[in-house]
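Case study 2.
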Amino acid sequence: MTCPSHPVVDALFEQWGGALPVADEDAFNVFSAPTGTLTTHYACLAALVSWAVGHGIAPDAADRYVRGLFRNVGRSLSDETRPLHQLAAGHETPRGNNERIRTTWFDPAHAAALKEALDGLLSDLR
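Prediction:
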């Protein structure tokens, strides 16, 4: 689905973070599937807050900390000079906290489950 660029429309989309023109409906559907993960990320952040609260941290402090932590992660995504796997590696210390959670929680089984969920959504979008 490509259409000619229009400066006014392009300027409008730039205010919202830009647009990525796609070649066809299949490409549009592929890009649409990952958008289905946004609320999962928020739910994960809420689970982190809940976990901290369960360990004696005040809810407002836990919420403020998690929001601040991931707000900064969002800023690091602006560095488009490094692929995402390099950003992840740059936040890990060998055998450190981040590596431990990534390798024990987001293991190959979880990665496969995510792929399966995205493939199922993509199938439904088509």
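Residues 1-35 form one domain.
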